[in-house]
């Protein structure tokens, strides 16, 4: 099946030789710019946010990036592209083509999942099994009776959706037939969790039951948070004097900013817990202290640092 090629490097505005850190930095900058919660044009921002998330899903994963790079650098974004024959072995899926009821060939496409056909063909999971039209014989007329194939795809879920839950319209095209289903995303859904929609896979043959639709959750990358189980991880940059003397700072949460107290003597990498501000049912916000030293000093600042050096008895190597 031919799909539209996606240039993930172009989506993130980085070169093909960009380092992992450069890719991460570019993603975070773009994700903050196009996050639907802050952008004025929410519909346009939502599509752009999905695009850069898909790009980072691949380029931010060393194994996926390596496999993607093997496609070569001569492709142009939007060009027709046909996946290599052996690509499905890497994606860990069965072929997205199969034999449906009455022996008819079918292909499956998704809409509303947040991922493009290009991603689904190269990195997604499509078919999970089922008899696809083969099975027991109906003794009355000799027609084959078989359960329809299960169908699996990936669905991009934002952290905001994971926190509050949502209902998303997802379309599934089986050959020439397209069906749209309202998919419930429960609050607290986790990375890799599979949502099962019973009877919404391939139709059975000879009166056989339909297969099921499985949507595997991929939590959208967020510009501010990493996810660990149901906890959200936020790295808070602190000035040396804030860490030494203590301070009150504002940090983001999925429900808005909150003020937290930085204890005097906070160490680099120290974790501060804000209970109940992670993902349900029991996640917290873990704030990681990152002490940042100024790279440039005014003359007045330099004198103050020199005075501190003369008068302080602190030696980090003792």
Structure description:
The protein is an alpha+beta fold and 318 residues long. It has helices spanning 8-12, 20-34, 42-59, 62-69, 87-91, 117-123, 159-164, 240-245, 299-311; strands at residues 3-4, 80-81, 97-99, 105-111, 127-129, 150-157, 166-174, 177-185, 194-197, 213-219, 225-228, 231-238, 247-251, 258-262, 271-274, 285-291. Strands 3-4-7-8 form a 4-stranded antiparallel β-sheet. The longest helix is centred in the first third of the chain and has 18 residues, at 42-59. The N and C termini lie far apart (65 Å).
Radius of gyration: 25 Å
Largest sheet: 4 strands, antiparallel
Counted by DSSP, the helix tally is: 9
Coarse structural class: alpha+beta
Strand content: 25-35%
Describe the oligomeric state of these chains in a short phrase. Answer: single chain
Q: Summarize model confidence as the mean pLDDT.
A: 86
């Amino acid at each position: 099946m031919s799909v539209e090629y996606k240039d993930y490097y172009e989506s993130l505005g980085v070169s093909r030789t960009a380092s992992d850190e450069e890719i991460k930095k570019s993603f975070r900058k773009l994700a903050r710019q196009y996050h639907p919660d802050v952008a004025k044009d929410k519909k346009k921002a939502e599509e752009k946010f999905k695009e850069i998330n898909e790009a980072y899903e691949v380029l931010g994963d060393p194994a996926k990036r390596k496999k993607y790079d093997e496609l070569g650098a001569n492709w142009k974004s939007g060009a027709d592209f046909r996946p290599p024959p052996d690509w499905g072995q890497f994606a860990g899926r069965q072929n997205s083509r199969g034999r449906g009821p009455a022996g008819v060939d079918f292909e499956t496409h998704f809409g509303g999942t947040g991922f493009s056909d290009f991603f689904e063909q190269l990195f997604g999971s499509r078919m999970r099994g089922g008899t696809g039209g083969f099975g027991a014989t109906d003794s009355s007329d000799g027609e084959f009776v078989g359960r329809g194939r299960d169908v699996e795809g990936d669905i991009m879920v934002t952290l905001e959706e994971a926190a509050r839950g949502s209902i998303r319209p997802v379309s599934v095209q089986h050959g020439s037939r397209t069906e749209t289903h309202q998919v419930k995303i429960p609050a607290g859904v986790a990375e890799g969790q599979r949502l099962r929609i019973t009877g919404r896979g391939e139709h059975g043959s000879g009166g056989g039951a339909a297969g099921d639709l499985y949507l595997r959750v991929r939590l959208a990358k967020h510009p501010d948070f990493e996810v660990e189980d149901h906890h959200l991880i936020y790295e808070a940059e602190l000035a040396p004097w804030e860490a030494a003397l203590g301070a009150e700072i504002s940090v983001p949460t999925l429900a808005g900013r909150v003020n937290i107290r930085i204890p005097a003597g906070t160490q680099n990498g120290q974790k501060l817990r804000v209970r109940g501000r992670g993902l349900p049912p029991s996640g917290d916000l873990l704030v990681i202290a990152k002490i940042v030293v100024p790279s440039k000093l005014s003359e007045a600042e330099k004198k103050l640092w020199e005075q501190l050096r003369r008068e302080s008895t602190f030696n980090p190597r003792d």
